[in-house]
C-alpha cells in the first residue's frame, strides 16, 4: 500500500502494511488542518470516538450529534464535515477494506456501517470492553513492526467490530441467520452501487436478481419502508450532492455522469427532490465554489 496517501480530509499516513491508523482530532486540529475546514470525501472507514464534548458531525449532509464517550461509525466514501464551532476531544480510527483481510463482506453487511435507512448512522456508548479493544489497536499501531503485527492488527480490529455489533444487537430478539428479504436487499444494494449511474429501471434490477419486481419491492419495503424506485432515486440524488460538493464539474456534466442525457432533466430531478437547483445547492453547502 502507498506509504503516504493524503485524502481530502484527514492525513491518513497509512504507514502500517494493512492500512489502520488512529489519530487525535479536536477543534484546534481541525482549525489548523486546511482539508478539514471544508466538506470532504473519505475513501476509508472511520470510527470517531468522542471522548469529551458534544460535536455535531455532518455525514452526507445529515447532522449527527454525538454524546460524550460514544463511538460513531462512518462507512467509506461518505461526505463528511467536522464541527468547527464546538470544543471537543476525540480520536478517529481509520481503516480500509483490506484491513480485515479475507472478510471484506463483513464491512458491507454489518449494521455498524450499513443501515436500511441511509440517513441513519450507528452510535454506540463507549463500553469498557470496546475501549479495551480500541486501546489494543492503538498500542499495536505504535509498536515497532514485525512479522506478527499485520495479523495482530486484523484480529484486534475484528474483535473491536464484532464486539460493537454484539452490543448493537444487545436486547434485540436473536437472529436466525439472514432472512430471504435481507439477502435480496443486500444483493439489490450491491447492484445499485454498480449500476445507479445508468438510470436503469426497477425491472433491470429484478431481472439481474432473477426475481419479479413485486418480490423486490416487497423486500425493500419490508426492510426500509421504501420502494426500489425510491431507493434508486435516493442513491442518484446522494451521488449528485456528493459530486456537486466534491468535484469542480459543472452541473450539466454531473448530470451526464449520472446518466441524464439532457441537462434539463437532471436539473428538474434535483430540484424536485431537494427544492433547489444544483447551483444553489453547491453555493449553499460550499460557499465560494463556482458552478
List keywords for this structure.
Jelly Rolls, globular, four-stranded antiparallel beta sheet, transcription, 291 residues, single chain, 17% strand, five-stranded antiparallel beta sheet, 2 domains, 11 helices, HTH_AraC, alpha+beta, DNA-binding transcription factor activity, Arc Repressor Mutant, subunit A
Return the string of H and E elements.
Answer: EEEHEEEEEEEHEHHHHHHHHH
What is the CATH superfamily label of the largest domain?
Answer: Regulatory protein AraC
Q: Give the overall shape.
A: globular
Radius of gyration, in Å, reads: 20 Å
Give the number of helices: 11
Helix-strand makeup class:
alpha+beta
Largest sheet: 5 strands, antiparallel
Arrangement of strands in the largest sheet: 3-10-5-8-11
CATH architecture of the largest domain: Sandwich
What share of the residues lie within helices? 40-55%
What is the fold-level CATH name, i.e. the topology of the largest domain? Jelly Rolls
Number of strands: 11
Provide the domain count.
Answer: 2
| CATH class designation of the largest domain | Mainly Beta
- Determine the N-to-C terminus distance: 35 Å
Pfam families: HTH_18
Keywords: DNA-binding, Transcription, Transcription regulation
GO molecular function, one term: sequence-specific DNA binding
Protein name: Helix-turn-helix domain-containing protein
Report on the structure:
It holds the Pfam family HTH_18. GO terms for molecular function: DNA-binding transcription factor activity; sequence-specific DNA binding. Residues 186-284 form the HTH araC/xylS-type domain. Helix 3 (128-141) runs antiparallel to helix 4 (149-169). The strands form three sheets. A five-stranded antiparallel beta sheet has the order 3-10-5-8-11. A four-stranded antiparallel beta sheet has the order 4-9-6-7, with helices on one face. Strands 1-2 form a two-stranded antiparallel ribbon. The chain contains eleven helices and eleven strands. The longest helix is centred in the middle third of the chain and has 21 residues, at 149-169. The chain has 291 residues and is of the alpha+beta class. The protein has helices at 27-31, 105-109, 128-141, 149-169, 180-195, 202-208, 213-224, 228-246, 251-257, 263-274, 278-285; strands at residues 5-6, 11-12, 20-26, 40-42, 45-52, 56-59, 62-65, 70-74, 78-81, 89-95, 123-125. It has two domains: 5-169, Regulatory protein AraC (Jelly Rolls); 180-285, Orthogonal Bundle (Arc Repressor Mutant, subunit A). 43% of the residues lie in helices and 17% in strands.
Amino acid at each position: 500500500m502507498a506509504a503516504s496517501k493524503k485524502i481530502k480530509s484527514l492525513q491518513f499516513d497509512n504507514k502500517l502494511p494493512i492500512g489502520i491508523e488512529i489519530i487525535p482530532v479536536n477543534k484546534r486540529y481541525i482549525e489548523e488542518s486546511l482539508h478539514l475546514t471544508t466538506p470532504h470525501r473519505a475513501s476509508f472507514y472511520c470510527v470517531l470516538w468522542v471522548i469529551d464534548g458534544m460535536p455535531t458531525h455532518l455525514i452526507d449532509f445529515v447532522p449527527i450529534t454525538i454524546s460524550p464517550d460514544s463511538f460513531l461509525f462512518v462507512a467509506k466514501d461518505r461526505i463528511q464535515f467536522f464541527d468547527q464551532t464546538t470544543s471537543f476531544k476525540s480520536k478517529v480510527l481509520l481503516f480500509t477494506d483490506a484491513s480485515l483481510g479475507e472478510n471484506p463482506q463483513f464491512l458491507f453487511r454489518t449494521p455498524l456501517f450499513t443501515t436500511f435507512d441511509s440517513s441513519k448512522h450507528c452510535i454506540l456508548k463507549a463500553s469498557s470492553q470496546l475501549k479495551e479493544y480500541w486501546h489494543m489497536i492503538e498500542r499495536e499501531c505504535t509498536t515497532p513492526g514485525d512479522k506478527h503485527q499485520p495479523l495482530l492488527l486484523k484480529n484486534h480490529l475484528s474483535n473491536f467490530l464484532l464486539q460493537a455489533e454484539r452490543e448493537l444487537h444487545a436486547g434485540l430478539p436473536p437472529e436466525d441467520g439472514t432472512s430471504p428479504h435481507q439477502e435480496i436487499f443486500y444483493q439489490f444494494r450491491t447492484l445499485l452501487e454498480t449500476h445507479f449511474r445508468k438510470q436503469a429501471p426497477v425491472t433491470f434490477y429484478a431481472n439481474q436478481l432473477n426475481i419479479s419486481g413485486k418480490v423486490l419491492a416487497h423486500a425493500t419495503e419490508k426492510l426500509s419502508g421504501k420502494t426500489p424506485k425510491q431507493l434508486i432515486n435516493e442513491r442518484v440524488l446522494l451521488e449528485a450532492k456528493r459530486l456537486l460538493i466534491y468535484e469542480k464539474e459543472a452541473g450539466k456534466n454531473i448530470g451526464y455522469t449520472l446518466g441524464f442525457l439532457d441537462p434539463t432533466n437532471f436539473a428538474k430531478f434535483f430540484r424536485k427532490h431537494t427544492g433547489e437547483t444544483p447551483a444553489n445547492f453547491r453555493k449553499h453547502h460550499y460557499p465560494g465554489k463556482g458552478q
